[in-house]
Specification:
Distance between the termini: 54 Å
Number of domains: 1
Helix content: over 70%
Strand content: under 5%
Largest sheet: none
CATH topology: Tetracycline Repressor, domain 2
Shape: globular
CATH architecture: Orthogonal Bundle
Number of helices: 6
Number of strands: 0
Order of helices and strands: HHHHHH
CATH class: Mainly Alpha
Low-confidence stretches: none
């Protein structure tokens, strides 16, 4: 009755909702800490959005390359693969730094709070999240493709959910370090 695409999409949306609830629980767990660190509430929405966007774009590019047979579904020396990984890592780190600077500047000029550690916190969390999410994105995209699934149906919600969870955990880790 339901086609394969519908089943793939429905199942991953259920997983995504569950993961989103878990990410929200983690966020609720650190709410009292969010209020103490100036600028973190300004940083968090952009930080969460960027993680899913970068990994989602990476997955879409890799998936398209797989379907076009420009890329083989293995992590081996393939120029297109390493170019995409390099771009995703660079964007993750650069955008985390920019977000940290923006959160600092907004905190400083709007609320007169001078807390430059927010920049370092954003950078640490961004590097950590990027290191975790890129391999997860690649392995899940390749795994789905090898098993005959369309990664484009699954990876968007999956990466958004994983990105939210990893981002919140990365921010928690960065808060502990700083």
């Amino acid at each position: 009755m339901f086609n394969k695409d519908f089943k793939e999409i429905l199942s991953i949306e259920i997983v995504s909702m569950t993961g989103g609830l878990f990410a929200g629980f983690l966020l609720a767990f650190i709410t009292n800490k969010l209020e103490v660190i100036p600028g973190l509430l300004l940083l968090l929405p952009g930080f969460l959005e960027i993680r899913g966007s970068i990994s989602g774009s990476l997955s879409a590019r890799i998936s398209s390359a797989l379907f076009l047979k420009v890329l083989k579904p293995t992590i081996s020396k393939q120029r297109i693969l390493y170019g995409n990984i390099t771009a995703a890592v660079a964007m993750g780190i650069i955008l985390s730094l920019i977000l940290g600077v923006m959160a600092f500047l907004l905190s400083f000029f709007v609320f007169q709070i001078n807390y430059p550690n927010i920049i370092l916190m954003s950078l640490i969390a961004g590097v950590l999240a990027t290191i975790i999410e890129i391999p997860l994105t690649l392995s899940a995209t390749f795994w789905l493709f090898k098993r005959g699934h369309d990664p484009n149906n699954v990876m968007g919600p999956y990466i958004t959910t994983v990105g939210d969870i990893v981002s919140v955990l990365s921010i928690m880790f960065a808060m502990v370090i700083i």
